[in-house]
Design brief:
By secondary structure, this protein is α/β, with parallel strands linked by helices. The protein has five helices and 13 strands.
């Protein structure tokens, strides 16, 4: 997930590309090695800076899609046709290339075992990246915290981490639900509508279970899902959101 970078006091350093793979036709996974990397928490992000031949610089933030236990820092970059940064990262970046990186950043939209649960993860599109890091961390640490996830995508082809989600869906304590909002395969048995109060009431934990909810995606999606959970009786203090919107993918957070 991409956002406009927020300045911080961390040091810029050079990260080296070790692998690239297309997750979907529009999203590329970029695995990086970062010298001196001291680790991150699931849900954090990094700042990425590109410098043009004329000295012009553009910065964006990208959620870390890998867990703290993974060998590399992985970013899932969605190509935005009008973007300044993502077209280069998706179309031009190659193995052994270097980019400037600063992080990890963020301490609000994170999850690890001491925070408990049960967990309810809600994502649309590339908003799934930080939640994927949480699920991978959960599995790597063999946490027994129960997890329900609701993932929304335009189509099965556009669904990020499709194979991984299917694998998790077959494992305890994960309960993965998927809704495809525009196109569905002929044999599709999942949901096929936008996320609304009725769908959340069906999929989310009951309010009395006091789940810890993480919602990530475009601004309108996040606002709708968060408001619906509150209307259903969920504690606003147990709902954490990360949202992006507009042509520059500006990050906003709610507490």
């Amino acid at each position: 997930m991409a956002r406009a970078a927020i300045p911080g006091r961390l040091t810029w350093q050079h990260a080296t590309v070790v692998e690239t793979t297309f997750e979907t036709p529009q999203v590329k996974n970029i695995a990086l090695t970062v010298p001196g990397w001291t680790g991150h928490r699931a849900g954090q992000h990094v700042d990425v800076r590109l410098t043009g031949p004329d000295g012009y610089q553009a910065e964006r933030c990208y959620s870390i899609a890998s867990s703290p236990e993974d060998g590399y820092v992985v970013l899932s970059i969605e190509r935005l046709d009008d973007g300044e940064v993502s077209p280069f990262l998706v179309d031009e970046l190659r193995v052994d290339d270097q980019i400037e990186l600063r992080g990890p950043v963020g301490g609000y939209f994170v999850w690890d075992e001491p925070l408990g649960g049960p967990l309810f993860l809600v994502a649309d599109g590339s908003g799934l990246a930080p939640l994927r890091a949480m699920m991978r961390h959960h599995r790597a640490t063999r946490s027994e915290v129960p997890v329900r996830a609701l993932c929304s995508a335009d189509s099965l082809e556009a669904l990020l981490y499709r194979d991984e989600l299917m694998e998790l869906a077959a494992c305890d304590p994960f309960d993965i639900s998927i809704t495809l909002t525009r196109e569905q395969p002929s044999a599709w048995r999942g949901y096929h509508r936008g996320i609304d109060s009725d769908l959340l009431a069906e999929v989310a934990w009951p309010p009395e279970d006091r789940s810890l909810a993480y919602i990530c995606g475009p601004t309108a999606f996040v606002e709708t899902a968060a408001a619906a959970l509150v209307a259903l009786g969920h504690d606003p203090a147990r709902i954490r959101t990360e949202r992006f919107g507009g042509p520059r993918q500006v990050l906003l957070r709610e507490t």
